[in-house]
Write a structure and sequence with these properties.
homodimer, 3-stranded mixed beta sheet, 3 helices
């Protein structure tokens, strides 16, 4: 089995301005890919057009593969406490699988997000896949447990209650710490359609754990939830 | 709120051979996109190369957008009972967000899948995102509840227990019906690294419900779980 430890995080001696520039450069490419991915689901162009599109996609992949280490993106941090996990399946800005979710930290410790889930997140016809709601709630709740990245947490258990279908389109979500007991943090969360009258489509509660190794005095700051 | 009903499914008067051909055509494009998506996370080519790649990606998107209705993919079925949900976030072969998971129906009613989760499914460094495990388990368990697509089910509740990290790479998963009571189906499932000594990384149990409307006599066959 694999295991996680403080060495799972990579310290990088890179100024924050350089990190921000790289994020914008490669993030822009991933944004274009999200558009391509969406239209790939919906298109009905003919075989010859699909063949041309495949040729363009393969050319792009060859260009990018000319210098691409095989490792996944990982989690990195610099001396300023800036951290980046660009490959993350939920928040990774270089990962077109991720919507990506952008976290809004509130002063009371709760965390919100507002995002649009399009055709690529479908489950029931016209609705968000129940597993997608589970995935992004797990992440938002883990980040909430990390108390604004002041500690590292991992998911222990997660329970989801599906109340009603969630239409594809704009959604909002929120999570907050319900209670804490030593290394155990209980978090609740929900996701709903974004609208004045909408009520939660999925409600969740989870137990998040601060691993023993994360309590070591040289634990990196700015890393947050290990989702 | 949106709601689901039998009209959520579209009957299409298309021969199965044509459905299969379309699946292969557009599925091939999505496979190429999965490769592009993966290398987009890992690449470190310079700004000019990224600009060239973006140009190619946008050209491909423009080609495909020339004839693309705005609706998500939905769930369709034909007179043979062949069904297709190509945009599904877990199993959709035209959706590059989906790995996609391919279901292996067992004679005893359990359902298995084996797949490789690469850089696009990362959470903790080198590990599968806990939310990704939740997402694909939800789907596999819902399909299991549908008893080989002989009935429609929706997720009621889902509980996940995270036992150990799941390394990126080949994984296997399995789900089975634990018990049934009228319209309630209890399903258990797990996901593990694919290897001789591996034990589950995430264990799940879920309550799946057969909606009242799905018990109508004209319910379409071959549609299965509404995940």
């Amino acid at each position: 089995m694999s295991s996680l430890s403080l060495s799972s995080f990579s310290f990088e001696d890179i100024p924050t301005a350089e990190v921000d520039a790289a994020e914008e450069l490669y993030g822009g490419l991933a944004d274009d890919l999200r558009d391509l991915l969406d239209v790939t689901i919906r298109t009905r162009v003919d075989e010859s057009q699909v063949a041309r599109a495949r040729e363009l996609v393969r050319q792009a992949a060859d260009l990018l593969a000319a210098d691409a280490p095989p490792e996944p993106a990982g989690i990195h941090f610099n001396a300023d406490g800036r951290s980046w996990n660009w490959g993350n399946a939920v928040v990774g800005v270089r990962n077109a699988v991720a919507p990506p979710v952008r976290l809004e930290w509130q002063e009371d410790g709760s965390v919100r997000a507002a995002l649009t889930l399009g055709a690529a997140y479908e489950g029931p016809p016209g609705s968000v896949h129940g597993g997608v709601s589970a995935m992004i709630l797990d992440h938002l709740m883990g980040e909430t447990a990390s108390a604004a990245h002041t500690r590292v947490t991992v998911t222990g258990t997660l329970t989801l209650r599906y109340v009603q279908p969630l239409p594809l389109g704009p959604v909002r979500m929120e999570a907050r710490i319900a209670r804490e007991d030593a290394r155990k943090v209980m978090v609740t969360g929900w996701i709903a359609a974004d609208g004045p009258d909408s009520s939660p489509a999925v409600e969740a509660s989870g137990l998040f754990i601060i691993p023993r190794w994360a309590a070591e005095p040289d634990a990196p700051s700015g890393v947050g939830s290990l989702d």
